[in-house]
Structures are given as C-alpha cells and as structure tokens.
What we know:
This protein is an alpha/beta fold.
Amino acid sequence: MGDRLHGKTAVITGASSGIGAASARRFVEEGANVVVADVQVDLGKAIVAELGDAARFSECDVTDENAIVAAIQLAIDTWGQLDVMFNNAGVIGAIGPIAETDSDAWRRTIDVLLHSVFYGCKQAAAVMIPQGSGSIINTASIAGVIGGLGGHAYSTAKTAVIGLTKSVASELGPKGVRCNAIAPGTVPTALTAAMLGDVNDLEAVAEQSRQRYGRTSDALDIANAALYLASDEAAYVSGHTLVVDYGRSINGGSGRFSGAAPAMVGIPPR
C-alpha cells in the first residue's frame, strides 16, 4: 500500500476488466477512491467487492453521455470531488478491408473509442475547471501513433484521441487541469485476445508478444503509467502521449545491423 494518490477520487471507464480493472486496483492501493464505470455489471460489482469501501460501481455505456455524467456524479456524491478521469473503455470494433468496412460498425466503433472520450473530457472539465485542478487520462494506442497495427476505425479513433488530448490540454492547462494519453502496445486482455479468435485465451496474446518482441506485457504496465499521470509526480506533464509498448512503435524489430558481423556498411575497402 502507498499514498501516491492519497485523498484523490477517480472515475475509470472500462474498469470491470483488463487495463481498467488493473488501474482500479492500483489506484486504490495508492490511496485513491474509485468509481468503476462499465457495462459489464457482474464483473464490475466483483471488482468493487474486492476493493471494498474505496470503490463504487456505476453501470456505464460510454456512448451515452448521461451515463458518464452519472458516474462522475456518483464520485462527487460519495467522496465530494473528482480528481482523476480515466477515459479507458474500448473495443476492437470494425475490422476488414477499407472497401468492405461496414458503415454501421464504423460509426459504432467511433462512438465507443472517440465520442466517449470527448464526453469524458467534457464532463470532467466541467467539474475540474471550477476546482482549479484535476488530471484527465485518455487511453489511445500505438495504432494511433503508426499505421497498420489496428483496424481502420480503431486506428482512426485512437489517432483522434491523441489529437483531442493535445487540444484539451492546451485549453485546460491555464486552468490547472492536465490532460494526457497513454498509448499501450499489445496487452494480454480480452480485447486483444478477441483479435486472435478467443476472448479468453490471454496466454496466446502473451506468447505472441514474447515471440515477436522478446517480452510480454501486462495490464499492470499500463496501470502503472496511468498511476503516474494521475499523481502529483506528473504535475508538469500535460498534452503528452505516453507510449508503453517496449519500443515496438519505434523499432522495426529486425535487429539486422546489431546482429550482423562487424563491418563498415557503404564504405569500400582500401
């Protein structure tokens, strides 16, 4: 147990499982009170039962702005404040070639991944601006940093989340409110497992990461990043996208030069 978030209250969307659940646990360990906001009612209530008096559950479809308002209001009614808004809920959404992408699936994906973040930023700002403090955290993705790592709708939404984060940070900084994003790499959660065909096979996701990148990730890696951005340790950090991917987004992964025999490339011998 620590005190890095002592006295703070957070709302975390998508907190019934995966990154959100890991973040809820980590925040409470560090002294925060947390509203677990999710459509997965049974899982969410189980997380709250595990965390005890420091947690409350709010059934929340993040595509419904009123549901986000209700989650924030629950935090205020219970603990009197909102210090951290973690807009984390997500889906893989529409997949497939651009010429074959279903338009309704596209719109639904954008609703969940982008519009929900807008609602969260908007409603958190309404509370945080008057109090002159607060930290908004948005879950983006390395699919929003480089192309080809997600479906077209997913990549578009996550790129837009990064842009929205910068824009909100620019406005709210002078008002004492910070806004940052986290761009996770491949994390073994039900969301990423679904892409491999079995939502419950988290080990398949972990093994893929081990084979491709030399190390597997964990939801706790992202939770720890969120903890930092939520804490006063990040008091001078705003408008930033914290990439947590073990270097995947900046490394093609071939290692062909470091693994080759020593040589001077492109310089003929004397």
